[in-house]
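Aggregate trends can hide what the representation actually does to any particular protein. This step matters because it turns folding into a mapping between discrete strings. For completeness, the protein is quoted in full, as a sequence line and a line of structure tokens:
=====
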Amino acid sequence: MRALHLVPAAVVLVAAGAIGGVAQWSHPAAPGPGPATSDRLVAVTAATRACPPALGTGSGRVALIAAATSGTAAGRAGQAELTPLPPAGVQLRTVAPISQGGPGVLSLLPVPAASTTGKKATPVQVGWSVTATGSMAPAMEAEVAQSSGLASVRCSAPGSDLWFAGPGQQEGVGQIQLDLMNVDALSASVNVSVITDAGPVLVGDDTGIIVPPHQTVTETLSSAAAGASVVAIQVRTSIGRVAADVLEGPAHGAMSSWLPGAAPPSTQQVIPGVPPSSGAAGLFLEVPGDGNARVSVLAITPQGQYRPLGSQTIDLPGQSASYSALTPLGGTAAALELTSNVPVIAAVVVPGSGIGAFTAATAPISEQAVVAGNVAGSGLTANVVLSAPVGAARVRLTAVASGAGAGAAAGAASQVVSVRAAHTLVVSVPPPPGAKRGSAYAIVITPLAGSGPVYAARVEQSQSSVVSIVPAVTALTTISLPPVRESYDAISP
């Protein structure tokens, strides 16, 4: 393992009761007087995320917002806390947890740099565990961001099966860094699988990687990129769970890019938020199983649907990956709908800062989604790209200013937009009136009642390039508990 030396960045956190967050549940439904016959909706009461080490070893910042809605957390105290996840086996100088307990306020919090103990303290890269309870838990979201507050990548929820896809050496990548973060009190055992366009690749000790409790293990997968156009990574645990993030960059230089986590393998995939750009976007596909895949690509644009590859399909053998240029997309925004006979993994790169900006397959937004790190001005604009593959969609977009609650009229502004069925809509979301010039603000994406399935991503662009893409992921405020019966069945978050 070897650390990458990269430019400083910041961490952005959003935890919002009004805005939602995929979270753990901690209170089972109480059995009624008779047999339970239907699921119960309960508010999320605990949530956990992990932010990867900031680029470089300097300090960063955390932006946090939390607010209850529809009584999901009414009357409950809440707190969000950040604690360091040091490299495995490294003793840190004491770093006090960073706490924020006020729901309804978007604020920026400093994240200090970390250093080792001993007479000669040296700076180290550390991950950060983010936990929330009570009114801060329904809706927690975290993002790594630049010092300006512009989000680069969402901090991940811990899991047991995580997927990433991105470019290899043939597309300019010389360094690949995988951060494995354990937010739990038990050790996790991790297996890392890599597939390129040449097939499965063995990369060092990629099986049985032990990640101790509340620590980070960083693996260098750079050798996997050698001679490859595409590198697909699966992180799977046999014991416990981890959060994972992947950073790719050129062999020399500091302009690196984060890969967003991709949706699990499926025969139906939608990749939102492919913006227009000066060069051709690229599609990464992986077939994790043994069966051969035949993938068709449908572009959903503001003008409607069309097939950018014509009647041509992308044919892939099992246990392989591929890269396809999307030159026909031209200068229009789009979502890509992929249909395959066997499950696949999918992601897209768009020319932009560093090795490019990335978006990956997601699920439709079911309650609401939030992107915390947005900026406008100085040549940057924040757009939300909304796509409705099936039925027409109606969506409320809310911008929440720094230092103001989600419901405060002076600190939030919203607009309702309609997306035609089988179309994409690009909506500019400026900061709300009264926001300080150059300050970060959050964007909440809420499908309204009766809306068809909607997929979204936030795209930040300058006049000349794409700066950042963040695919929008559902942020839950409630979860459904199945009925209690006389059974040994159990539920795991």
The CA atoms of residues 387 and 424 lie 4 Å apart. The longest strand covers residues 334-350. The chain has no helices and 38 strands. The two ends are 32 Å apart (CA to CA).
